[in-house]
Amino acid sequence: MTNVHDLPPLAVTGRLDRLRAGFDAARCDALLVTDLTNVRWLTGFTGSAGRLLVTPTNALLVTDGRYTTQARAQLDASGADVGLEIRSAEQLELLARAAGPIARLGLEAASISWAEQRAVAAAFGAGVEPVPTDGLVERLRMVKDDAELARMGAAAAAADAALAAVLPTVVAGVSEREIALGLEVAMRHAGATGPAYETIVASGPNAALPHARPTDRRLERGDLVIIDVGSVVDGYRSDMTRTFVLGEPTAEQRRMLDAVTEAQALGVAAVAEGVALREVDRVCREHLAGLGLGDAFSHGTGHGVGLVIHEEPRVNDRATGTLAPGHVVTVEPGVYLPGVGGVRVEDLVVVTATGCRPLTSSPKQPFLG
């Protein structure tokens, strides 16, 4: 079982300076960070409320009295060079005074509401222009350091252990919901703080729905069963999918299982430093299309994972970037046929200088007695 105290310590030293290096390109003199995941990554603070102002020379976190002790302890532990103010009211006015003479204030466009933007504009005054920014922190978060990778590896190991523990119970007569609950309990026993997302167990016709939620449907002989399971360790997440068939597969089921397993292996083999994200998607998609299953692959091949389960970089046919060492992505092609079911196989891999390294390791043996 993973103990978070056995993992290397997380440190945020240098992250604020890397963020500041992007201010000129974003046309801002300072950035107001309102996305709490970004606040956590930059400072180590994990509270449910807080705003972080980052200027060229200083940073200030403002939160409320619920987090007086927690915020101070977490800032000290992370090594963040960040000031702290505890304030329940007039937080924006306090941040405006701390910002000093700036002309352009960057706002995180993806995480700030219209009402919040208006409140920021009022607090900072007419002399400060609000500037929308896109992905300044998220692009930095894409490259994981060793401490982050250790947590993601531990999360993947907890999900692997949970699947191994629960797989003997995946039999005809048990419900999807019962299997999902068993997985979530087993993950916690393996050291996870909880599931990384709502665990997917989809059987029979439900397996034709890529993001089905567990129901009270009871498994039957001949079902395809998709199990999509991930866990959280110290905030960092894992993601994995395996597909099983109860009993002897039909010719169509075997065709689907073989095709997706082959496509997924080709996709993993394509992951390497400098490879275009869309190339990984192309490899999987073209293999399935060549087997007559292209139209049944209805989603992207993968996505980044970290403090949230879906983050940059995206692995699909519209992606424009390339893979770099430290990126952690899923490779998860799937095919879904109404009336037949679905198959998805997914691994979480970290890009290295020589290719990639899987973090998930559960066997891909699809046939259950």
The Cα radius of gyration reads 23 Å
Largest sheet: 6 strands, mixed
Derived structural class: alpha+beta
Helix coverage percent: 25-40%
* Averaged pLDDT: 96
In percent, how much strand structure appears in the residues? 15-25%
Query: Which outline best applies?
Result: elongated
Largest sheet, order of strands side by side?
Answer: 4-3-2-1-5-6
Number of strand elements: 20
* Uncertain spans: none
Number of helices: 11
Termini Cα gap: 29 Å
Which descriptors apply to this entry?
11 helices; 34% helix; six-stranded mixed beta sheet; 20 strands; four-stranded mixed beta sheet; 369 residues; alpha+beta; single chain; elongated
Please tell me about this protein's structure.
This protein has 11 helices and 20 strands. By secondary structure, the protein is an alpha+beta fold. The mean pLDDT is about 95. The relative contact order is 0.12. The protein has helices at about 15-20, 25, 35-45, 70-80, 90-100, 115-125, 135-140, 145-165, 175-190, 250-270, 275-290; strands at about 30-35, 50-55, 60-65, 85, 105-110, 130-135, 195, 200-205, 225-230, 230-235, 235, 240-245, 300-305, 310-315, 330, 335, 340-345, 345-350, 355-360, 365-369.
Summarize the structure.
34% of the residues lie in helices and 22% in strands.
Helices, strands, pairings?
Elements: H1 15-20, H2 23-26, E1 30-33, H3 36-43, E2 51-54, E3 59-63, H4 68-78, E4 83-86, H5 91-99, E5 104-108, H6 114-124, E6 129-133, H7 136-141, H8 146-166, H9 176-189, E7 194-195, E8 200-203, E9 224-229, E10 231-233, E11 236-237, E12 240-246, H10 251-270, H11 277-290, E13 302-304, E14 311-315, E15 328-331, E16 334-337, E17 341-344, E18 347-352, E19 355-358, E20 367-368
Parallel strand pairs: 1-5, 3-4, 5-6, 12-20
Antiparallel strand pairs: 1-2, 2-3, 7-10, 8-9, 9-12, 10-11, 13-14, 15-18, 16-17, 18-19
Helix pairs in contact: 5-6, 8-9, 10-11
